[in-house]
Design a protein that fits this description.
With about 725 residues, this protein is an alpha+beta fold. The chain is built from 20 helices and 40 strands. α3 runs antiparallel to α8.
Length: about 725
C-alpha cells in the first residue's frame, strides 16, 4: 500500500500527502504557491453544517535557502493565511479549529526568520515607539495603534502562538501520527511512515527556475505622456490575474504602484524592460503587493522607493526578516524617497499625495495628478482600504476618532478621472457599495478573485490585463528620446550632435518569440534595443542571458570581436536599426574602436561568469566593467596576502584552480568567491590556490552599487554559509 502521494506543482514546489496520518505538506513556498495548489485542485471549496470553507495543506516545509536563481523560496505568508482563515484553523468555533496548529517545518534559522517575517506581515510596526521613530505625530500614531490592535482582535500576538514548530537541525523529527522527517543534505529531505519512505528535493536543477502560475499573452503598448497601465486587478487568491497593481507611464518613464508576485513576468508581457522602471510607489507590505520587489533587484541601478517613512519602515523590517539580511545590506537595493502624508509631493514632474488608510499594517492610498489644459488629470489608487461598515463599527466601539473617520471617507470619495478601488470585502478590504455615488469619471473595481456581481457592475468597471487609461496623450517621439539617452550612456565622451543621424534611423517592432537574427546571420544594421527584453543564446545552446533595453547588439564584429549568438525577442521589442556603414564611420571618425574593444573584451569575459549568468553585461554595466581588475595568484603564497592590497572585492576565477576547504568546493572558470567579504566586510572562508590562476576583481563598493550583482552576492553568501551549517549539523548527528 502506498501511503505517500507526492505531486510536483512546479519547479521547487511539491505537495506531499499522507492521508492515513491526516498530513498535507506544502513543500517549498515560492511566489504564488497558493495559486498553484488552487489550479491543481488541491485547495477546494468545501461545506459542512452549512459552513463554507476551503481544504488545503496543514503543514509547510521551508526551503533551507531564502533565495534560488535570484527568486524568493519561502513566501509562506499567504499559505499560512489560507490555513488560518480560509480553512478556519484560527477562527473561533470553526469546524477546523480543533486545537491542532498548522505545522511549520525547517531549520532553526529559517523557521525563526519566517516567524519574524510573518509577524511583520501580520502587524507591521508593532509599538508606539516604532511608529513615532518614523516621524509620525504621537497622536496619529496612537490612533493607528488602536486600529491595528482592533484588527488583531484585541492583542498583537507572535505567530509562534498559532503555529507548531518543527526544527530539522538535530536528526529525525516526529511530525503527526507517526510520520517522521529527516534532512539528508541541503534542501534534501526524507519522510517516513510505517515502512515506506519518500524524498523531497527543493533544490532547483540547472535547467529549472521558479515559474509563474499566471497565463498572460505578450502585449505591445505605445508610450503616452501620462497614462495608467492596468497590470493586475486580482488578489492573492486569483489564479487568472495578477494582484492589484498599476504601472504609471509618464513622460517616457515607468513607475509601479506596488510590486506584487511575478512582477517580472507581468512587466515582460507588457513589453517593459526592468531597466525602464524608474521606481515603485508602495502602498503597504503585504505579499500580494510587495513580494515582487526583489524581482526588480535584477537591474543595474537602485530602485527608487516612494512611500511614507512609516510604510517604508514596515516593508523594510519585513524584507530583512524574509531575506535574513541586515538593514544595511537591504539599503544597497533601494534609493528611498520619503513622501509627506496628505501633501502633494513632486516626483519628476508628477505630483503624488499619500493618505493614511486603516489596515492591519501601515497602509496609504495614493493620488496622482498632472496639471494640464483645463485642470489636473488624476489617477487615484485605493489598495487594501477598509469598508465603511468596518470603520463605522470602529467608531461605535470608540476605536477610531469620528473626525479621523470623516477625513478618511472624504479622501476615499474625492473624484478622479480614473480611480481603482479594492473591493475584496471582509474585515480588511473595501466594499463596492461604498462608492455607489462616487463622482469619478471612471471607477475600476479590483482586488477580488470572483467575477463582479450585477450590483457591482453598476458601480464600476473592470480592467483587463494590459488595458490603458490615457490621461494625457503623447505628442513626443519617446523611442527617439530613449535612443538619445541610451547613446549618451554608451558614449559619454561623445558630443550630443554626433548622434543626430542615429536618431533618424527606423524603429522596428518585433513580436514576442521572434528571432532578431541568428548566430550565422550578418544583418546590414546594428540593433539598439529601445524597449522590451531580448534573449541572447550561445552557439552551443547551453546558456542564455537577457539583454535589457539600452543594449546594442550586432556591433561587436566592427571592433574585431566575434559575434556567436542568436538573439530572440522574449517580449514585444522595439529596436532602432542603425546601418552598419553609418555606425562604422562613427566609430572610425571619433576613434572609438579602442574604447569599444576594451569594453567588449572585458564584457565577454564577464558574460562567461556566474555574476552575469542571467543578465548579459551591457551599456548599463559599463562603469562596472571599467572598474574590473585583473591579477595572477600563485599557489605558494597565501591567497589573503596576494589579494589584501585590493581591499574588499568580489573575485571571479577566469582560469586556473582555487579550492574552498570548509565547503569542499573547487571553483570552476567563471565562478566567484569572496562574496563574504563584500556582504559582511570580513573574510569568513579560506581559499587555497591549487595552481597559478588568473582572477578578476570588482571592488566591493562597485558591487554594492549594482543591485543585480549584489543580489547574487547575497544569494551565494547564504548558499555557502548554509551548506557549511548543514554539513556541520549532519556530522554532529552522525
Amino acid at each position: 500500500m502506498a501511503y505517500f502521494e507526492k505531486i510536483k506543482l512546479a519547479p521547487g514546489l511539491y505537495w506531499l500527502e499522507v492521508k492515513d496520518a491526516n498530513l498535507r505538506i506544502l513543500c517549498g513556498c515560492p511566489s504564488d504557491s497558493v495559486k498553484f495548489m488552487l489550479k491543481r485542485g488541491l485547495i477546494k471549496q468545501m461545506e459542512s453544517h452549512g459552513l463554507a470553507f476551503e481544504s488545503g495543506p496543514n503543514a509547510i516545509l521551508l526551503s533551507d535557502l531564502s533565495i534560488q536563481k535570484g527568486d524568493l523560496c519561502n513566501l509562506a505568508e499567504f499559505p499560512i493565511l489560507q490555513m488560518f482563515y480560509r480553512q478556519g484553523f484560527l477562527i473561533p468555533g470553526h469546524i477546523n479549529n480543533t486545537g491542532q496548529k498548522p505545522l511549520l517545518i525547517g531549520t532553526r534559522q529559517q523557521v525563526r526568520d519566517q516567524l519574524e517575517y510573518i509577524y511583520r506581515g501580520n502587524y507591521g510596526l508593532t509599538s508606539l515607539d516604532e511608529l513615532t521613530a518614523t516621524g509620525l505625530d504621537k497622536g496619529l500614531a496612537s490612533e493607528m495603534m488602536k486600529i491595528k490592535i482592533h484588527f488583531a482582535f484585541g492583542q498583537i500576538c507572535h505567530p509562534e502562538e498559532f503555529l507548531e514548530l518543527c526544527y530539522l537541525d538535530q536528526g529525525v523529527s516526529d511530525l503527526h501520527h507517526g510520520v517522521q522527517v529527516k534532512r539528508l543534505g541541503l534542501n534534501h529531505y526524507e519522510f517516513k511512515y510505517q515502512k515506506e519512505s519518500i524524498q523531497v528535493d527543493l533544490n532547483l536543477q540547472p535547467d529549472e527556475e521558479y515559474k509563474s502560475p499566471l497565463a498572460q499573452n505578450p502585449l505591445f503598448l505605445r508610450d503616452q505622456y501620462f497614462s495608467v497601465i492596468h497590470s493586475g486587478e486580482g488578489d492573492g487568491w486569483d489564479v487568472e490575474r495578477g494582484s492589484m497593481g498599476s504601472v504609471l507611464n509618464f513622460d517616457g518613464h515607468y513607475y509601479l504602484v506596488d510590486a506584487g508576485p511575478n512582477i517580472d513576468f507581468i512587466l515582460q508581457n507588457l513589453g517593459i524592460s526592468m531597466a525602464s522602471v524608474k521606481g515603485v510607489f508602495q502602498t503597504h507590505g503585504h505579499d500580494d503587493h510587495c513580494a515582487g520587489l526583489t524581482s526588480l533587484f535584477h537591474c543595474h541601478r537602485r530602485l527608487k522607493f516612494f512611500a511614507t517613512p512609516w510604510v517604508r519602515a514596515s516593508v523594510y523590517k519585513k524584507m530583512c526578516a524574509l531575506l535574513g539580511i541586515s538593514m544595511e545590506q537591504l539599503s544597497n537595493f533601494f534609493q528611498p524617497h520619503d513622501l509627506e502624508m496628505d501633501d502633494w509631493n513632486r516626483v519628476d514632474g508628477l505630483e503624488v499625495k499619500p493618505s493614511y488608510s486603516p489596515h492591519p499594517i501601515e497602509t496609504t492610498i495614493f493620488k496622482f495628478r498632472l496639471l494640464w489644459e483645463g485642470g489636473h488629470r488624476t489617477y487615484f489608487h485605493l489598495a487594501d482600504i477598509s469598508s465603511y461598515d468596518v470603520m463605522d463599527t470602529m467608531v461605535h466601539k470608540k476605536v477610531i476618532d469620528p473626525s479621523l473617520l470623516g477625513k478618511i471617507k472624504q479622501e476615499y470619495l474625492e473624484p478622479a478621472d480614473v480611480k481603482k478601488i479594492d473591493i475584496g470585502g471582509g474585515m480588511i478590504h473595501g466594499n463596492a457599495v461604498d462608492f455607489k455615488y462616487d463622482r469619478s469619471k471612471r471607477v475600476i473595481l479590483a482586488h477580488k478573485a470572483e467575477a463582479l456581481s450585477k450590483d457591482e457592475k453598476e458601480i464600476g468597471s473592470s480592467a483587463p490585463f494590459g488595458s490603458v487609461d490615457i490621461l494625457v496623450p503623447s505628442q513626443s517621439k519617446y523611442p527617439t528620446k530613449r535612443i538619445e539617452n541610451f547613446l549618451r550612456q554608451y558614449f559619454p565622451m561623445v558630443p550630443l550632435e554626433e548622434f543626430r543621424s542615429f536618431l533618424q534611423c527606423p524603429v522596428e517592432t518585433k513580436v514576442a518569440g521572434s528571432i532578431l537574427f541568428r548566430e550565422r546571420d550578418a544583418p546590414p544594421f546594428i540593433n539598439l534595443i529601445v524597449s522590451g527584453v531580448v534573449e541572447r543564446i550561445t552557439a552551443d545552446h547551453l546558456t542564455s542571458q537577457q539583454l535589457l533595453a539600452g543594449s546594442i547588439i550586432g556591433d561587436a564584429p566592427l571592433v574585431d570581436i566575434a559575434e556567436n549568438y542568436t538573439y530572440r525577442a522574449i517580449s514585444y521589442v522595439q529596436t532602432s536599426q542603425i546601418p552598419k556603414d553609418i555606425y562604422r564611420e562613427f566609430i572610425s571618425r571619433l576613434d572609438l574602436k579602442p574604447y569599444l574593444k576594451d569594453l567588449y573584451q572585458k564584457g565577454r569575459i564577464l558574460s562567461k561568469t556566474e555574476v552575469f549568468s542571467q543578465i548579459a553585461p551591457s551599456i548599463h554595466y559599463s562603469d562596472t566593467i571599467q572598474e574590473l581588475g585583473m591579477l595572477r595568484v600563485k599557489p605558494d603564497v597565501s591567497f589573503d596576502k596576494q589579494i589584501s592590497a585590493h581591499g574588499p572585492c568580489l573575485v571571479i576565477l577566469e582560469s586556473g584552480k582555487i579550492y574552498m576547504p570548509e565547503i569542499g568546493e573547487s571553483l570552476s572558470q567563471g565562478d566567484f568567491c569572496c562574496e563574504d567579504w563584500v556582504a559582511t566586510g570580513q573574510r569568513q572562508r579560506r581559499l587555497e590556490v591549487v595552481e597559478e590562476s588568473r582572477i578578476l576583481t570588482i571592488p566591493a563598493h562597485v558591487v554594492q552599487a549594482v543591485p543585480s550583482i549584489y543580489w547574487q552576492v547575497i544569494e551565494k553568501h547564504q548558499w555557502r554559509q548554509r551548506l557549511m551549517d548543514c554539513r556541520k549539523d549532519l556530522q554532529k548527528i552522525a
